[in-house]
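User: I'm writing a tutorial on reading structure tokens. Could you give me a worked example: one chain, its sequence, then its tokens, then a sentence or two explaining what the tokens reveal?
Assistant: Sure. Here is the example chain.
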Amino acid sequence: MNKLNKELSNAIRFLSIDAVEKANSGHPGMPMGMADVVTVLFKNFIKFNPKNPSWLNRDRFVLSAGHGSMLLYSLLYLTGYKSISLSSIKKFRQLNSICAGHPEYLPNSGIETTTGPLGQGIANAVGFAIAEELLEKKFGKKIISHKTYVLAGDGCLMEGISHEALSLAGHLKLKNLILLFDNNSISIDGPTHLAVSDNFKKRFDGYNWNFIEIDGHNYKQIFKALKRVQNSKKPTVISCKTKIGYGSPNKAGTASAHGSPLGKEEVQLVRKKLNWSYQPFIIPKKIINEWKEIGAKGYSLESKWKKSFKKKKSLVNKFFKTSFDLMLNRLNREKKKLLKNNPSIATRKSSELLLNSLMLKKNNLIGGSADLTGSNNTKTKFHKVINSKSFYGNYIHYGIREHAMCGVMNGLALHSNLIPYGGTFLIFSDYCKPSIRLAALMKQRVIYVMTHDSIGLGEDGPTHQPIEQLSGLRSIPNLNVFRPADTTETFECWQLSLENENTPSILALTRQKINPVRKEYIKENKCSNGAYEIFRTNNNIELTILASGSEVNLAIEISHKLATQNIYSKVISVPCHELLDKQSANYKKKILNETEYKISIEAGSTDCWKKYIGEKGLSFGIEDFGKSAPYKDIFKDLGLTSENIIKKVKQLIK
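And here are its predicted structure tokens:
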């Protein structure tokens, strides 16, 4: 048996070695070191079906140590996934090859998530494991009963996001989460003792995880450890002591095996040492057939599962599809209802009012906050909190773990058709940005409720007042940044966030109360255009005023006052730059080019507005940090008042 296992493992090793060598780029060491562990895992434990990579009840395998991507591509090819061919492996790291330098999520491919930034895969895996628990309670163990395996290295465990995510997983006792720690004690700079002296056992004990140590090249130990975790009551880490670059006479156990090809001479020595006499990319038919048989087992597993699923198929489909349609219908009804009594409230409160309506009946929306529930207004009386004793809920207290929250939400979104949203302050988007960027890259519907969106939060001061954050987030491709001006716009931006299945969304919401700018119900979603005319003082105008969020009220005030001085203008509310940029040339011309003179008003950095106002335009915003004071005093001190702006507008037009 060990001889067969070794041959199966070596198939992974040499596909990885040969692909990296051909590309003259990549990381051969980790696939060589962890090949034995994943061979036992895929051969004996993991539940998957290459003929249907999207099988709902498959086990998830996440490669957090994404630099070792050839390990994953080799496994997918050998077990029979159509997404990975031998020719694509030969094009490793080449233009448009699915075998990219780090795994890139592709639906129905076997690549469960995009990894590379270390530690992200761990957080995603926690999201997968939470989703499994939620859906198991929803549909029963015959429908949902799978595990999440995540392979992580020393680097993943050094990154701060790993602490946040692992701590949350232990707190929730995610019993179906197994972390395979490639404990090879090597990073790019050299031995990990250069920078790390952690006691991993104590660390994981502190997280409330099981901790098992094994020799990662001993098949019996690997099997026993994986067998032991199948019925665990809490998450487990299997610390696999491996040798990076296993089989390389001169580079095994050294940093030189980590991130560079071994070199032709060393590859020949590895072939000799591991008794692998085959040419590059040649896998003997006997070994290929063994791997294909391992993959084929999943077909019968899914076929058996389908008999149980058939009885609950309509229930599952209703949960994922019908509940979403009901949410949108309820959203429109609530929008119409609240316009009858249109109070001056903070848009964070507007968001809560909408969530109250959406959560009145159970659906696939999973909420949460990074210890700011009462400030973000993300939890309603209809939410039920998820905890280690009950996964019958729909709200997660993430604790002060903003980065992990966003990584976990990516896992929730990737798992199935759950729609996660999570709250924090906009200023802390800086903690979240790597995960937000990956959500955009993977085209996942993840919603970030980010309140306290400007100097309008007041006394907490410049450490909590976002200035450059809106501009920075708007620079991320495939991310919609919404900054609504009142309750109606908040509802419309929520609707767009829910409807955009392939785009994450940020809802930047106020702490301070703001007056409603929309007074009449219109079924049309005005925010869907990204910008629209909201106020005009004359048919013939000479000034266009662009604004977002709380500053739309200021823009309307300015427009009124200018009209008394015979300067006529229109106000354009711009809740979403990204959607405006996608509009037709004619629409943008109508909105932006009616007047020669244009100004923008937003309580943040101004660089992202300059594309709209042109060379003659003026941007009113903030190019320095905020101040600690009542918010109206800060606006006045920083020149964001009607008096100051009108004075400069008159100079501009003259």
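What the tokens reveal: The first strand starts at residue 60 and ends at 63. The mean pLDDT is 96.
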